[in-house]
Amino acid sequence: MSASKRRRVLDIIATDSTFERADFRGREVWLGKCLHCNAHLMVDLTGEPISRATIEHIIPRVHGGTDSLENLGLACARCNQGKGTRHDPRYHKDARAQQLVARLQERRRERWRDPDAPEPD
């Protein structure tokens, strides 16, 4: 993964309250949850995914979604690929795809953490 993508992953983690520092086999990591299914995701402190964490564009880029932190979350590869395959191509024409995006936007807002807030102990 490129340095810019690792930085973006760390920026997402900084704004997602499900992610906390944790010890994993004697190594400090970020441990959080998939935006879709709440499966555990693990990311190295450098931003390199240890589990199959991927960057999720809640509103797909092909439909005007941006790289703003409010539109990004971390998702397991299975969920992200499933959304990309089944829902993203039909986003503007499919009510179910729009409902999924609305649920993900709400979940992202619920998880939002001020990136400038001090890290929890």
From TrEMBL:
Pfam families (alphabetical): HNH
One Gene Ontology molecular-function label: endonuclease activity
Keyword Hydrolase: yes
Signal peptide stretch: none
Statement: the UniProt record of this protein carries the keyword rRNA processing: no
Protein name: HNH endonuclease
Domain HNH nuclease as annotated: residue spans: 31-81
Keyword list, A-Z: Endonuclease, Hydrolase, Nuclease
Gene3D superfamilies in the cross-refs: 1.10.30.50
